[in-house]
Design brief:
4 strands, alpha/beta, 139 residues, 4 helices
Amino acid sequence: MMRLGFICVQNAGRSQMSAAFAKRERGHRDLKDSVDIITGGTDPADSVHEEVVTVMDEVDIDLSGQAPREVSTTELESCDIVATMGCSTLDIDDAKADIRDWSLDDPHNKTIEEVRAIRDEIENRVKTLFDQAETQITQ
């Protein structure tokens, strides 16, 4: 089982979108029994950003019931790949985890057009991540 982590500070925007796209991609590729997905933040917000809920609804992904959560070091160290969103305060000592900083803009308080562009970039990065990892996942 491969474990993918999508992490940011607040877990209220980018990492929520990333995990949602990863879950969808996992389903499209019939990898539900092969890929575990976690998302979290080092200092979670109270709720997912409203503008994020809105733009994800446009692509038929409902984040309205999602709640930001704190991620533990133990969870992160159990990941094969950790994608951070460009705001990470992570301190992971386990060399097993492949840490990738995606350096994405924070969607909070951005215009809907800007948030859509961030969403689309995240969707492309998630697909690319699955393309790159699929050989490892299916072995």
